[in-house]
Amino acid sequence: xxxxxxxxxxxxxxxxLNQGExxxxxxxxxxxxxxxxxxxxxxxxxxxDIVRLKQTLNLSAEVFLERYTDIVxxxxxxxxxxxxxxxxxxxxxxxxxxxxxxAVYADRPDACRxxxxxxxxxxxxxxxxxxxxxxxxxxxxxxxxxEDEDWNLESWADDQEARVYNRMTRRWAAIKALxxxxxxxxQGPYGPKGKMAFMATYxxxxxxSFVFESSFLKRYRIKKERVRKxxxxxxxxxxxxxxxxxxxxxxxPSQWIRPR
Length: 260
What we know:
Number of domains: 2
Order of helices and strands: EEEEHHEEEEHEEEHHHHHEHHE
Helix content: 25-40%
Strand order of the largest sheet: 1-9-10-2
Strand content: 15-25%
Number of strands: 13
């Protein structure tokens, strides 16, 4: 998901989709371009993507990040991005692409299940709450855009089981946008505070140990039922991570978590 300034909307590629507006698309094994979109990608992984992928691969978050991702800091940004590392073959295919298709299809990343739609958050000059924007943007080689099956944003999200993904990615994108300003007070994103923020969003296993095996719960007040859920549910724990870094980094109050 991208963050977009209102004045830049007109220059973006693709057709903007409003609520209820339709587009045509169908992908299937008999189409000539099947799986071509799974090659040579700059595929950004968001925190909820990591939760689902590491679970389906039966890996810890730390092992998954080390084995399958590249962590990069782009110029002008103050928080690293996590990209899926392509396979080391001539076509640089997705590491989960096999002869039958996507080996992790049920837990594929948000960008994959949302394709050929791209979502973003549009920020106005007044600093108010961002608005969601969506574009129909298949690549030129995509033949699925010539198929005759009609969708809109709602029906496509339902068909691709993308609603939870989209919601979690919107939450993360709103936080990520805060990092357009440097919050680290000279430490940089790889300083102690930055490492903690990365752990709380991308390494749920380490964050769970931090929450339950340190003095964290003595320093912060969290509802007991939420604490119980976080012990077993990575998604609930990720929600805490989002709220905690807003509080710890920017001092943004939260109803989830309050200092004691």
